[in-house]
Amino acid sequence: MTAAREYLRVSKGKGRTARSIDDQHRDNLAAEQDHGPWTWGEAYRDTGSASKFATKSRDDFDRLTADLADGAFGDPGDVLVLWEISRLARETGKGVKLIDLCETAGYKIHVTSLDRTFDPSNYGDRHSLISGINDAEKEARLLSKRTKRGTDSALAEGRPHGKRPFGYARRYEVVDGRSRVVEQYPDLVEGPLVVELFERVAGWNGRERESIRGIALDWEKRGIVSREKGVPISAQNMRPMLLRKAYIGVRTHKGTESEGNWPAIVGRDLFDAVQEVLADPSRKSTVTSAVRHVLTGTLRCDVCGNAMTITAGDRPKRSGTGHHGQAAYVCRKYGCLRIRQADVDRVIIGDLEAVDPETGESAPELGAILAYLSVPHRHAALSRRPEAGTEESSARAELSRLRVELKELEAAPSPKTARARIARTADMEEIEMDIAALDVKLSKLTAPNPLAGLLPDDPGADLILWWKAAPVTAQRTVAALLLTPELLGQVRIKRVADSTSDAVTDRLRWVRAA
Q: CA–CA separation, 97 vs 101, rounded Å?
């Protein structure tokens, strides 16, 4: 009997995910009555967009492609069942590749929404399949273009974009048939709570400095809840609030900062004071089992993108030997892979207890982190605390001058001639661009470096001794700050099958910013 395997995909991973997949599965099963009989094999399931603009990988789509290529999908004549053609791919190239794989292996493709089974080796069926994928790609590109146009427009005008931050209210108007944000302003109830949160963490305005957890418990007792779900705001959700630059009137988009067109809730000095508190490693007094290892949470699984954690051993205990195996990093969420912890730590941190076999003397080997920090000028630059200097003062003075000039232009009577009006608009746009550039510059000049206070003040200090003496919380913070695409690179662990060899260096993929 012909075997059938489904590829089930939904675009959103929130409340309706399971129901949507179940709906597809139910319809697919019903299709067997007219197009079967089939025996059902294991389904492939994904949550996420199928377009080229998607940011989340589709793990089961990659598994499906591999199974079609090596014959693991099934026998010739077996059927790949889709609810609709766009579930498969919204990139013509990927879709054609999959159709080619089905044709080569002799598999058929059934599209339930079209009530039809296609034979990729038939030129008419092949044309219909490719046309459907091509139409889906066109739709995805149009949607992406509209979304980008709206985002770029909001960015150019400094308007808020995305989810409304706690503490702000918004006013909307219908523009071009769609509801758009035209004003963001401090909420009368939530705004003061944001100020309170920052002041309590920083210990400002006569307050005692408090822990985020203590504030969260106090807010829960007072009945302060989130806007969307009406549940208490946890300490885990408060921390991202304390890092959000929207509260100082700064708009961030893909790592770029610009001045927002909404009023700040928190002053820059208070915001910077809170950032220094959050970067202070002494804030944690205890080390739980979750923070006993330096790199857990920072390393990522290259298969699914989730964080890696530690397991006690990478192999079962051998009967009669007392051998328990050695600690290993494993994919925290799905268990996609594992790799020996000591091997990874040696590459990233180093072997600080190494001994020269010939002399017997200490010969520590520096890993990527300590080798990076050991360069004196780099260490000095990373650990330097921001100080107000001539460059900052000049930038602030120029910023004040430009804002006054812009207000004067805005308040001046409208020019009588079209040419003069165009010229004035161009002048205003140029000033606004200069203001945005200065805002970004000031942000970089004044924002406290998270590494300040973590590294030893003396650039010539013994980094190995400092690292050994540092608490695990400080080591984890340094590792998390350095192992980013902008600096050393985000470290992703590959499966042995995806590596050129089983050597640890071949299984580490360093993802760096373009």
A: 6
